[in-house]
Request: fold
Amino acid sequence: MRISYFNYHYDIEGMTQGAANQIRALAQGLNRMDHQVDLQFRRAKPPGENRGYLGFKKIGWARRYGHFPRLLFRNFSQLQEEKRLLDAFQPDVLLAVSSYANFSALLAARSRRLPFVLFCDGPVEYEYSLFFHQVYYSYPLVARGVEGWNVRAAQRVITISEILKGYLMRYNVPAGKIQVVPNGVDPLAFRAQPPDQELQERLGLQGRVVVGYIGNFEYFGHVPQFVALAGDLGRTFPQLAFLFVGEGTATPQLRQEAAQAGLQDRFIFTGTLPHAQVPAYLSLMDIVISPYRDDYLFYGSSMKLLEYMAGGKAVLFPALGQIKEVLTDGYNGLLYEPGDQETMGQKLRELLSNPELRARLGVNARQTIERSWTWERQAAKIARVLQQAREEYRPGR
Reply:
């Protein structure tokens, strides 16, 4: 099967690096199944480019109210380019990642009488209105109209969690049209391995028990309580250290609170790292946590959780969304109710006190990944959805 794969992420080396890794992994999985994939990052900025606001974008009101109309009109120039891409590759099906205010892929598929499959890895209208409302006016009625049009017009819709499937059904589509294909992990890149000794020495972590966090700090919650817990645990476990990989809005507060509590020697911050370096840093961690905010609508499919588990790590997570489908408390990880900081502290203390428990959870976590959560398995599910779309497609309907 020949598959054109369009996506519209912009900052694929920064904020959307995780989404870009997902897209590349699925494309590679499809290629390994002898499908031919033409992967197109349609809006990706060149690595290292950092554009400032130019022209009308320098004017606050113009930037706020003109952003969405600009994205809408950009569809028409994209449409011509995408028609040329389809003509050159001659695919059997077009797979496109859902993007805010975007409908060019749908029109391109229709113009070339191709089945169109929409991949929704997030509720784009909801995310824009939630996270960018202070910068851009979202024109919610129009934005929901565009998102709903794509969902209804697609031959099939792929999404990454049952919660997100429920969200998309608001657009009056039958449940059977939406297929849930969660994220996966490369079990060769992420595997149980001894600590990277050079890195361990450079960071001063020899002989220490390391609790780690990797990812976006936008949703790292309850910072004062977490720092207080870290200080309390440090009095019981003198070799305890915390390793934080990533950046986000909570990072400055975490640094400041740690400094005020005198925990600078226990808290190590690396900043954002290329994805290829993450396994080495993960190898240094004995326990991996993700203290997400309890007010966060967790509709995603956590690639970080799957990477931790593939690495054979003991994980401690809040019981949010799909996390509850992956983790069984006490078998392949530990769970606590979102916002229950007391239980989180108790379970973290239990993990620090019990190396045998950490080892058992890690072994079971790795086995869980091997059974059900590799990119190859998820790519095979997507291939079946694409094939169904081809078989059901009737041009003109």
About this structure: DSSP finds 15 helices and twelve strands in the chain. The chain has a mean pLDDT of 90. The chain has two domains: 2-184+375-392, 197-372. The longest helix spans residues 60-89.
